[in-house]
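Structure tokens please, single chain.
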Amino acid sequence: MRLTIAALLARGHVLIEDVPGVGKTTLAHALARSLDCSFQRIQFTNDLLPSDIVGVSVFDSKTGEFSFKPGPLFANVVLADEINRTTPKTQSCLLEAMNEAQVSVDGRTYALPKPFLIIATQNPVEYHGTFPLPESQMDRFMVRLRMGYPSSADERRILTSGNPALSVMQMDSVLHGADIIQIQNRVETVRVDGSIVDYLLRLVEVTRSSPLIELGISPRGALALYRLCQAFALVEGRDYCIPDDVKQLALPALAHRLILSSKVNPTGRGGMQAGEILGELMDSVPVPV
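Here you go.
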């Protein structure tokens, strides 16, 4: 949850890659309820069209003009459930929204609500009827994380606490959208020492020079890690970053952006393998003290 909140404060988006039934939808809905924000769930399927997500211009016979009808993307927190089950054409309609918090329809631009967070999910086990996310899409997710199975104690509480969906609906908000925007503006004021910036850049550079990696971290990825470190420090109650922020956040912020060499993985997509390689490369970079 802390990583999701940090991504929200850094104006980023989250990809949750995990098996069904571990609480991905509940996490997104609970976050929206606790922030008193609007929430929309979009079930991605192979017949989903971009207009089903973004919206469509409808002709009004009374006025003789077209009026725009916003789609479910116009919400503060959007759950893109099983995003890899839809076609690349539909996946690509999210690129502008994720990068610029706006959409373009029929030559007109429409701003999305603020704050704006996309939480996308995909099943890493099942591949039948799925379309792998393109590199440009993966690069726009600030973090990729896995929820994993709960501990025995946590699962016991889940079983005995009643209906989880009802519990989420009864949650009280602790912040409003305007509060989140104020905190997002504070993120940019979190201090990052020059030695930490150099450490971050060395981590990025080692991914670009490694023979195990075909495509290293882009400047967008470096900036995402930088902003995420600032936001995470704020979540931890600090107005400054420490080297452990970079070390702790590098894997969830960078591993999904890597394209591995064909000698390592013929598909180029690493998953857990990319994380292992990145971890080994990180061990070769001295941590500032």
